[in-house]
Every structure is written in structure tokens, then in C-alpha cells.
Write a structure and sequence with these properties.
single chain; alpha+beta; seven-stranded mixed sheet
Amino acid sequence: MNLRIANKNDWQRILDIYNQATVTGFCNADTEPVSIQSRRDWFLEHSPTEYPIYVVEKNDNIIGWCSLSPYRKGRKALNTVAEISFFLENQFKGQGVGTWLIQNVIIEARNLGFNNLIAILLDKNEASIRLLKNHGFEKWGHLPEIAYFNDTICGQFIYGLKINR
């Protein structure tokens, strides 16, 4: 596997994987697939030197990605906190790709000078919760019953990890 910083040519593949998770359900808070146009600003706020988006490749195919995003953008006291998000192609889940991706992005985040990583995820996303816990993330908060998916209501967890002390 190879980890590299994403570029504009990767945007569609990143969204394909994200939209696959949307359709699967309870992997993100979107209820329908998103387009490049609707996510353009999100892509543009990520830069290789501050808030990168990483892709993981296997045999030259992107099979997953992970982003480091600003947490509470514009609030200088939180500049050393990054929100981590990660998504894998369904067929590669449960094969150690997520573990490899998170391990490598934690190292990258530390090298970028972040002190803390946080993940905000739906409380029904048990696979991601397990993955985060396996990397030392701890539950730092819970927002109960705030996400509505047709007939299902769920909350969001905030998991955190101190990476530079």
C-alpha cells in the first residue's frame, strides 16, 4: 500500500468512496450522495502543508482516504487540533487497511505539529469506533439523538487522541 497526498485529480474517487459510505448508512451524516460542486469548498480548504487529504493506494488504485480538517476554523486557540475523517472502499474493510491508514496519518499529523486529533462520528458506527479505540482514541463527548435518518435517530460521539505532549 502507498499513502500520498491527494490532488484535484483524486476528488471524484474520494467522493465515490464517501458516497458509498453514505449509501451504506451510519458512516457519515449525509443522507444522499454529494457532488464535487457541493464539496468544492471543502476540498479547497485542505492543503498539503496544513490540512492534507491523504489517499491510500493499492496497485495504483485509490481504496481509501483520510483527511485532517480544521476544528472550529478561525479560532486560533484550536489551531493545534485537527479533525480526522477516514473512509475505505467497502471491499477493503476488515483487511487491516484502516489500521494501516490511521497509524500513518497519526504520524503525519504529529509531523505537521498537531497536538490533538478528534473524530466526530455517529454513535452507530461501531467499526470506526473500534478502529479509533485500537489506536488510543478515547471518548471525549457525546451529542445524543441529534442525527435523523428516516426512522432512525442517533447521536454523535467525539473521540480524541493527544499526539504531541
